[in-house]
Amino acid sequence: MAVVILMTDRRPSLSPQHTRTRRRSPGLAASLLGGVVAAGLGLGSFAVLVMMLWISSPYPDSGPGGALHVAAALWLLAHGAELVRTDTLSGAPAPVGLTPMLLLLLPVWLLHRAARDAVDGAYEGDGPAPLVAGRTAWAGVVLGYLAVGGVVAAYTARGMLRPDWEWTAVCLPLVAVVAAGAGVWTAYGWPRRPVDSVLHRLGPLGRAFLGTQTRERLGVSARAATAGAAVLVGGGALLVAASLVWHGPAARVAFAQLTEGWSGRFAVLLLCLALVPNAAVWGAAYALGPGFALSAGHVTGPLYSDPTPLLPPFPLLAAVPGAGAGTPLNWAAGVVPVVAGVTVGWFTARAAARAGGGGEPWSLGRTAGYTGVAAVLCGAWLALLAGLAGGPLGVDALARFGPVWWQVAVATVAWVAVVGVPVALAVRWWGCRGAVGEGEANKSVTGKQVAKAGEKSVTGKQVAKVGEVAPPATKAPDAKTDADTEPDAEQNPASPDPTSDLDLPDLTEDTYGTDDAYDTQDAYDNYEPYEPLPLSPPPPWPYDDAAREARWAALREVSAKAEEMAPPDPPQRTVPSGRTESPERMELTESTQLTEPTERMEPPERTERMEPTEPTERLQPTKSEDPPKP
């Protein structure tokens, strides 16, 4: 006897925990892979560039291994981490913390794109791709990126440019977290819920920014601050370009002294291009007043510049103004913060006036207050940029290069507030002036029309009581117009005047003046006033008891009419006196009497009831006279 084992074709179902893990794993795995790919692309870009320069250089130095170590160190430096140089002339390690800001854009862009693509997910179906959970995509990209970053930092620790572990542990995760978070937020369409949740956690101070109007006004201040910061940085770049043109011979000499080969000069040119954003921020700090430091204790500003120590030849350093007191040419750099303040004030005043949106203008205090908020935000922007643009290049005299971030922030707030607030108030007044003029003109025209309408139509006998519905009047034998049927106080003196108890203003005189050229009431002089019509009651709510009963009553009425329309039992025909029938009607009646009903039409028991009785009196039809033919 064969033994039969019962088996199912389907696999046994997994536990809920395994099912959830299985559903989450593709999104998390793809996010991890995206973070690894983003880090690999950034590292590969630096490696390709450094290896190309090493191959074209006539001085191979330490071989391809040293070039790869330099590429890995530059990748860490692009995230803001400081490096430590060990091959110095004195033998003491020297920090290198001045990050070229243009290099920072590459890892930020790669992280942002990786997080955005991780949220979209890989989907091969026909419909729209389902979004991966934001936390899953963000965590996967960050963990994958930091895994590669840890390996790169460990590899770089054995080279001549070694990472500073404290700065690496702070800067690398910070850049990854912020850039990946921005990518996830972009993929979800910039939702407000994460921002609102952060504001809720800040307590009462954060909840004050949750209102719709407050959020809109803060958005106006943020846009104005961003525009002001862009003007400051752009103005700083113009100052640097003008200084390079002014000190052109010295810059060319410095460029030629650094290296002799074409590969070396190309490397210097690339380094100068990477430092252009830093130089623009330095120029903005110079225009604001605090200036920047070229070494410890040596500050260069528009009012006074300290003598600079012996600096290495570099094209950008050759454009630094000379030592000594400032000249009117140096003071002209103050135009840049003035233009930035005007820009901030103009952006804020546009929203405050609401000239094109039709909204209510802001008050003077609110306009000045949010302009001050924009000044503070602009100072925060410049403080962040100043902190990124500076850093040490060595020890002792080279330990401090670039602007001081808090000094730049204070100077920015002062300049923008002092210039921006008056500009915002002036532009707001100018924008509201046209709106106020239009409003006053509309009010005058409306008042004039109301006065004329009251003078010609509002009289004692034409005003009806408000809310009183006139009873339906019987129609007279002869037709009358509305003016004839209107009650007259002179013809019926006993009737009380309906407006005797009303305190009506004297509208006989036009207090707004007359305008004979344009009178909107002249076209309506031939029309008589009419009685106010009663207002129709509002429609009932379709779900209350009264409406339900009304619907049922309507259904009953329709069904009753349908029953009435059914063929009833024919009653006994009686011809009333004085009524005549036509011969055709009589023949139809006789034919109906002679016709026997069929079984299909009427049941047998009702045949006797259906037989009509002979009328008691039959009148002879009268022959009607035909109308005369024309």
UniProtKB/TrEMBL annotation:
Protein origin, superkingdom: Bacteria
Keywords, sorted A to Z: Membrane, Transmembrane, Transmembrane helix
Biased composition (Acidic residues): 503-519
Disordered: region residues: 441-630
Compositionally biased spans, kind Basic and acidic residues: 597-617
Low complexity composition-biased segments: 520-530
Pfam families for the chain: DUF6350
Keyword Transmembrane helix tagged: yes
Statement: the UniProt record of this protein carries the keyword Flavoprotein: no
Stretches with biased composition (Pro residues): 531-542
InterPro entries xref list: DUF6350
Spans through the membrane: 28-55, 67-84, 96-115, 135-155, 167-188, 224-246, 266-288, 331-349, 370-392, 404-427
Protein name in UniProt: Integral membrane protein
